[in-house]
Write a structure and sequence with these properties.
Length: about 450
C-alpha cells in the first residue's frame, strides 16, 4: 500500500484528508508542522507528501516553501503536492518551479485530491531513466500506429508518451507548425485508460473570445440572442475522456482565466444556468508558440502554464530529423497513390536526396503536400527530383498574388511542361481530353510531348 504524508497545522484538515485518502486505498501519516514532517520522512517510507503552505499564523507561504525545498533536497524522488489558497497562485507557481508535482487550491473537492495524488504517484513510478528502445520494442508495448519515424529524438519522445499516457497527467506538446503535435495527442489518448472514451479536439485559435464560454462550457436555450436551443459544451462532450486544446498559445488573457478555473476546480457553469457541473477530463494541449516567452511578456498566465504541463514534450522540426524523411516520404507516397489510384509508385534515389536536402519550414505537413502534388502532376511511376521541382514551383500559395511562380524560378517552357503533366494526370492519360483542356489539337500536343520527352 502506498503511504501519503499529510502536513497541515489544522487538525480537522488532517482528519478529513486522511479519510478521503484512506477511502481511496492509501495509507496515511500526518504531521502538524514542518519539523514533524521531516521527522516522519526520515523514519518511515513515504510515497508522497501533501502539504499546506502556511503554518502557525503566517500567511506568506514561506514556511511551506522552506519545507518543500528541504524535502526536495533530502528526498528528491518523493512527489510533493501543495495546497494553496486560490488567491496565492504565485506561491503555487514558485512551488512548481521548486519541484512540486502539482498544486491544489482551496477549497478542494475530494475527487481533485484523489486524482492529483494518483497522477503524481503514477508519474513518480514511471520516472525511471529512459533507455534506448528500438522502434520495434516500443511498438510491442504501445500502439503508435500512424506515427511514422525512427529518429532517436522521436523514439525518446514516444517512450515518454508511452509511459505517461496511462496516467491522467496533463501534457503540453510544443513544436513548430506541422511537426505532428496532433498526431502525438491522438497517440496519447489511444494509449491511455480513456481510449474507449471520447477524444474531443478544440482549436482555440479559431474560437472568438466572445464565444469561448459557450463553445467550451455550453449554453442553455435563451442564454443570449442566438442561443435558440441548449448546446453541449466541448468539456461536457469530453467527460470521462480526453480534451485536446490545440493552439493554446492563441488564447487571450480573459479566456485563460476561465480555462484555468475549470482545469483547477474540475467544475464549470453552463452559460445561462447557475448550476455547476463536475467534469472528469484528461487535458492535452499543443502550441507552436513559446509560452515561456509569452509568460515573460505577460501574455500567458504562468499558473495556467503549470496546470497544462505536468509533462511537456517538444517535437523536433523535420530538418532536425532528416533521417526520417525517406520513411515519411514513402508513407505519404503510398497514401497519395491510393487516393489518386496510381499503383506501384516509387521514389527514385535522386528524388529522396532532393527531399532530404530541403529545409521544410512547414515540416511534415509540407512534406506530405509536396509528395501529393508530385503524384498528381507526374505521369511516370518513379518520381524523380525534377517532378518535385516542377510540382513545387507551381504550388498554390507560392508567394505571388496571381498564383504564378516567382519570376525567375521557371521559364515559359517549364510552365508549359508542368501544365501538360498536370492535365495528363487529371485526365488519366486520355490524350483527346488533355488536348481539349489545354486548348490545342491532338497533333500539337503530341509535338510537345515529344519535345519534352513525356511518355504517356
Ligand atoms: N510522425 C508522423 N507520421 C505520419 N504522419 C505524420 C507524422 N507527423 C505528422 N504527420 C502528418 O503531418 C500532418 C501535420 O501533422 P499535425 O497536424 O499533427 O501537425 P501539428 O504540429 O499539429 O500542426 P499545427 O501546429 O499546424 O497544428 C498531418 O497530416 C499528419 O497526419
Amino acid at each position: 500500500m502506498q503511504t501519503v504524508l499529510i502536513v497541515d497545522d489544522d487538525a480537522s484538515v488532517l482528519v478529513s484528508l486522511g479519510l478521503v485518502l484512506k477511502q481511496a486505498g492509501y495509507g496515511t501519516r500526518t504531521a502538524k508542522s514542518p519539523t514533524d514532517a521531516m521527522a516522519v520522512l526520515k523514519k518511515e517510507r513515504i510515497d508522497l507528501v501533501l502539504q499546506d503552505m502556511n503554518f502557525s499564523r503566517q500567511t506568506t507561504g514561506n514556511e511551506g516553501m522552506a519545507l518543500l525545498q528541504e524535502i526536495k533536497t533530502t528526498f528528491p524522488a518523493i512527489p510533493v503536492i501543495l495546497i494553496t489558497s486560490w488567491g496565492s497562485i504565485s506561491l503555487a507557481v514558485s512551488g512548481m518551479q521548486a519541484g512540486a508535482s502539482d498544486f491544489i487550491t482551496k477549497p478542494w473537492t475530494n475527487e481533485q485530491i484523489v486524482q492529483s495524488v494518483r497522477t503524481a504517484l503514477k508519474l513518480a513510478s514511471v520516472d525511471v531513466p529512459l533507455k534506448a528502445f528500438s522502434r520495434e520494442e516500443l511498438d510491442k508495448q504501445y500502439d503508435f500506429s500512424g506515427v511514422v519515424g525512427r529518429d532517436p529524438k522521436l523514439l525518446q519522445l514516444l517512450q515518454i508518451i508511452g509511459r505517461v499516457s496511462a496516467t491522467d497527467a496533463s501534457v503540453l506538446i510544443t513544436g513548430e507548425s506541422g511537426t505532428g503535435k496532433e498526431v502525438i495527442a491522438d497517440a496519447i489518448h489511444r494509449n491511455s485508460l480513456r481510449k474507449n472514451r471520447p477524444l474531443v479536439k478544440v482549436n482555440l485559435g479559431s474560437i472568438p473570445s466572445t464565444l469561448f464560454e459557450s463553445e467550451l462550457f455550453g449554453h442553455v436555450k435563451g442564454a443570449f440572442t442566438d442561443a435558440r436551443a441548449d448546446r453541449k459544451g466541448r468539456f461536457e462532450e469530453a467527460h470521462t475522456g480526453t480534451i485536446f486544446l490545440d493552439e493554446i498559445g492563441d488564447l487571450d488573457f480573459s479566456c485563460q482565466v476561465k480555462l484555468l478555473r475549470v482545469l483547477q476546480e474540475r467544475t464549470f457553469e453552463v452559460v445561462g444556468s447557475n448550476k455547476s457541473r463536475n467534469v472528469d477530463v484528461r487535458v492535452v494541449s499543443a502550441t507552436n508558440k513559446n509560452l515561456m516567452d509569452m509568460i515573460a511578456r505577460e501574455e500567458f498566465r504562468e499558473d495556467l502554464y503549470y496546470r497544462l504541463n505536468l509533462i511537456s514534450v517538444h517535437l523536433p522540426a523535420l530538418r532536425e530529423r532528416r533521417e526520417d524523411i525517406p520513411l515519411l516520404a514513402r508513407h505519404f507516397l503510398q497514401m497519395a497513390a491510393k487516393t489518386y489510384r496510381r499503383d506501384n509508385m516509387e521514389l527514385s534515389e535522386n528524388a529522396l536526396r532532393w527531399l532530404q536536402s530541403r529545409t521544410f519550414p512547414g515540416n511534415i505537413r509540407e512534406l506530405k503536400h509536396t509528395i501529393e502534388r508530385a503524384v498528381i502532376m507526374s505521369p511516370g511511376q518513379v518520381l524523380q527530383a525534377d517532378d518535385f521541382n516542377l510540382a513545387n514551383a507551381i504550388q498554390p500559395g507560392t508567394p505571388s498574388k496571381d498564383n504564378l511562380p516567382e519570376v525567375g524560378t521557371m521559364s515559359l517552357e517549364d510552365i508549359e511542361k508542368a501544365m501538360i503533366l498536370k492535365a495528363i494526370t487529371h485526365h488519366a492519360g486520355n490524350i483527346s481530353k488533355v488536348a481539349e483542356s489545354l486548348g490545342m489539337s491532338r497533333f500539337a500536343l503530341y509535338r510537345r510531348l515529344e519535345k519534352f520527352g513525356i511518355r504517356v
